[in-house]
Amino acid sequence: MKPRRPLKRGDRLTLISTSLWGDPDSYPDALSLLREKGLEVVNGDPAPPRSGPFSAGDRTRSEAFFRALSDGSSDAVLSTRGGYGAIRLLPHLDLCPWNRTTLPIWTGFSDATNLHVYLWNRLNTVTFHGPHLRGLGSSPESFRWFWEMVSGEKTAGSALPLGRAEVIRPGSVQGRLLGGNLETLAHMAGTRWFPDLKGAILLLEDVDEPLYAIDRAFSQLAHMGVFSAIAGLILGPFSGRSPREDDPANNVVELLENHCPPDIPILSSSLPGHDLPMATWPMNVDVRMIASASREASLVLAESPFQET
Questions:
Q1: Which SUPFAM superfamilies does the entry mention (predicted)?
Q2: CATH code linked to domain 165-301
Q3: Residue 160 scores a pLDDT above 90
Q4: Which residues are catalytic?
């Protein structure tokens, strides 16, 4: 399932706090940028009172997310901020009557990986890995790449922005682009929502995690056979960590030597993660990953993320 079409002037974008609660008015720069594109921006969060750090209780939050995606009034849905709490929505979302043949453009990252994975499994829908409202106004490039993606400027044959890219292991492969935040994905292991990653090009990124925690998450995925099943691997930023005496390696790439088979091509990109600027990439679409022996890297859409272009 794909969103019906890209965004255009006059469309409605609904903000929703799927993780920690965020007040949209706290991010005036992002709101202004969206409105300058002619979008009607509305707040889809439940009415107060809030529940601790969340906009409401888990069931109410899940119903608000379902409603934003399913009632037909929104052309796009954007997570207000990340943090924690989306995983608590999943069993409640299982009870919702998902019966639409298309969904709005849904964008989020980090903790929203839980919801990307849920939507891939439940509806096999295309989603968008990109900044929350909180980050859209923090970097001109982040907003530009977001708008290029959701407005349809990027279509089949278009290269996705990589920023600073490095070929770690050469190879050229094609597969569905899946993944997101490493720790969030690892925490879903063993649940009924964990995605089928066979033949996928897997994106992994994280922030503020020491190397031992990254190694633990890599080990979890390796023990499940994930790295043996994928076609290729993209490493986003792994930022915000300080060296420790108990670090099991010098860097993330060294850690992968123990986990990822040598025939899996790997490249790194500075853009799909918690660092700024951040790109917006469509997920659950076919892409061609080219990591050449001459150290040139590209990631090209093999299909449009929209039904109509």
A1: Class I glutamine amidotransferase-like, LD-carboxypeptidase A C-terminal domain-like
A2: 3.50.30.60
A3: yes
A4: 110, 205, 274
